[in-house]
Amino acid sequence: MHPTRPTEPTPPNPAFLNRMDAIVDEQIGAAAPEFAVESGYPEREAVWAGVEKRVSIARADLEHIMRDVHANPEEAFKEFHAQQVIAEVLETHGFEVMRGAHGVDTALRAQWQSDDFDPAVHPTVAVMSEYDALPGIGHACGHNVIAASGVGGFLGAVGSGSGRIVFLGTPAEEGHTGKEYMIRVGMLEGVDCAVMIHPFSYDLVSHAWTGRRSLTATFSGVAAHASMQPYMGRNALDAATLAYQAFGLLRQQMPPSDRLHAIIADGGARASIIPEEATLNIYVRSLYTDTLMDLSKRIDDILTGAALMTGTGVEVDWDNHPMSLPVRNNETLAARWGATQQARGRRVLPGGILPDSQAASTDFGNVSQLVPGIHPLLKIAPEGTALHTVAFADAAVTPAALDGVVDSAVGLGQVIADVLNDPQLLADARAEFDAAGGAVSVEALLAEAEDTTEQA
């Protein structure tokens, strides 16, 4: 008697996830961080109060951005409505706005500088907003919150000290690398540090974000009748299958925080024809730039090996969109962020509370590898609510989300104000950045990898 065929998938066992949640809850219960401002300037209290006042004045505009962008989700490189909404708010507040900034049609740039600004003496701080959505589920990553928070941080910091503040609307983060395109057209020229936030289900001063590369591998074979003359074929699907299986074996030797995922996007037309073409779409992720490049080389070797084993050819198209680098969190600036949110009554957690294996990717990594930067997480949803879900999209337009917009706008503005007024803060942030290896660009990494390949 044949066993009953299942018609539904078996549900995943949540035991591991539940255990991880329990560990996180235990760590949260034990955490009692104090993000004290150890250095500063005599006027800091008044300066912070000024930031709060300016954000309060702009609160209705920030809510408008948050709600309007959420109600009109647009995918990467199509965010013209969001661009207009944000630009109109900035223009209402008296700022000249550049649309299509730094080579990206849906990007934005506005800036303010003090009357005494001297680039040789005073710092330039960039504050960034994202506003693209996900297909099908809209703002399930909360970019509408990021959009409003960045605008609020900019408006709150204006007039708070000597220096320059640049607001940058950076489109196309989801599945793309909008910031890298903008970097290559001068987005960070003259910028000393950069700040932005990301909504989440916890308040964290910093968290791990992996670097990500994407590629397409297309195997080409020889078609043949699968029954009459199979020996006259070269099976492209066999090559794709061998590569896919090799990825699974490679995972045994990968660091636990690395990730590798692929799909066979095309594997032939009919079972009676040996496929002459098959295509793999692949994502490669790692926590560090050097491990990301090492894993990339392993993938390249597997694809070459699969082609050799099957007598097929293979074309590998790396980085159809430029790679996202891992985020390098600047803990000096992150601690100052923690102080701002603590002052807002939030229970802000230090980095390391969530395991590094629970990490996604963001193109802010490319920014953070070129200048000191922060990308803290902002609680707007119940603990454990996952990004890229309908539940998170719903959370991104709640009263809690608006509270988060206001708190984070104040926090970003106060961090910017401290950088403008406290030279030691920026000096310490820069020293930390330099000690971690200094500036690393995508183009330099690729050139180094090419040199290594040629030498081998």
UniProtKB/TrEMBL annotation:
One of its GO terms (molecular function) is para-aminobenzoyl-glutamate hydrolase activity. GO terms for cellular component: cytoplasm. Residues 212-304 form the Peptidase M20 dimerisation domain. It comes from the Bacteria. Pfam families: M20_dimer, Peptidase_M20. InterPro entries: Amidohydrolase (IPR017439), Bact_exopeptidase_dim_dom (IPR036264), Peptidase_M20 (IPR002933), Peptidase_M20/M20A_hydrolases (IPR052030), Peptidase_M20_dimer (IPR011650), Xaa-Arg_dipeptidase (IPR017144). One of its GO terms (biological process) is folic acid catabolic process. NCBIfam families: amidohydrolases. Belongs to the peptidase M20A family. This is Peptidase M20 domain-containing protein 2. The lineage of its organism: Bacteria, Bacillati, Actinomycetota, Actinomycetes, Mycobacteriales.
